[in-house]
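ugh ok fine here u go
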Amino acid sequence: MRAYSAAIMINMTQFWLVAAIITILAFFLLWSSARRGAFIVRSRKGASDALREAQITEIERNLEAGQIDEDTAMAMRQDITRAHSRATRRGEDGNMTEGPSLALWGIIAVALMSAVLSYAYLGAPGYPDLGLAKRAEMETPNQERMIKILAENNALPPAPILSADTQNILNKLNEAIAKHPEVAEGYYHLRVLHYGTGNFREAYLAQAKYMDIEASNATANDYAILAETMVLSVNGYISPQAKEALQNSLKLDPRNDLATFYMGLSLKQEGSLEDAKTVLSSLLSRDIENPEWVSQIHKHIEEIDGEFSVAKDPSAEDIANAADLSDEDRTEMIGGMVDRLRARLAENGGTPDEWARLIASLRVLGRDDEANAILGEALQKFPDNAAIKALAQ
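structure:
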């Protein structure tokens, strides 16, 4: 942590050093420009004086040569003097020869200070640049970040109120774990107790500690339970860490029911609807005795079926039905399908093909501004996808 803090301090020092150099250079350029303007004014004043002297000399030469009389020479001298006076009143006589005014210096100083203070307040000095891959990673919060997001929005469930007996058992468990923190069995019972009371955050932490101790001895069911407690602790969100636990469970036992169920939900969350339906439907062919669980599986499959009309291309039946509609009704029907697809992608994400289909559909409907905005977002999410890049050309 100290090394990281030191690196941040070095980065910030480098940033402000570069910013100071740029500010000084900008100030110098503005100062040089102002000085150059003052020099031009002085040059103009000198040129005006020289011209006046040359004109007077020419008049005197012509007078001596008898080419003009005294009255004409006097009139010409007066004309030249009046012209020089008009130039003086226009500010060409050296009113600015002392350089830029104090007001101009003040404006320059305020502008530069405003730029520095604005960045210090609105910017993030010392914060590293983020590539598209890193930004995409940040858009998929990990387990702890999701807990923090929910906590900041007061969306975490409140801690359950325990009965006196349950609290007594919990106290004894914590005392036993404090005496023997290396024994996995204590964390196993702690997880069971917290899970039973609905405190899934503590159940997840207990199961994670249990897994740390068990290490290579962990079973497929251990990984599945870890994933489930992670999911339940963040209101059903399946984080990358939870999915990794599911994958580890299914590697040890491809038919683990709990891991299969949550892997189906993970695929649904990602927008892979066909795969999600296949995985969840496979559970219905197994002997699952819990009717509530079976009901949940059917519920998710029905939700997936309801989204198929949005995620998939129109069927022959859809096209036939659309052909019988008026142009206005047909446009409304297609617009509804597109809006549902857009809402699903915004909520759950989706594949590059689905994003490309949404962009193309919006363009067909003449909603070019929306299509271009979503295209920009898609290019950030899938910078290397050929279909998305083709839409940008």
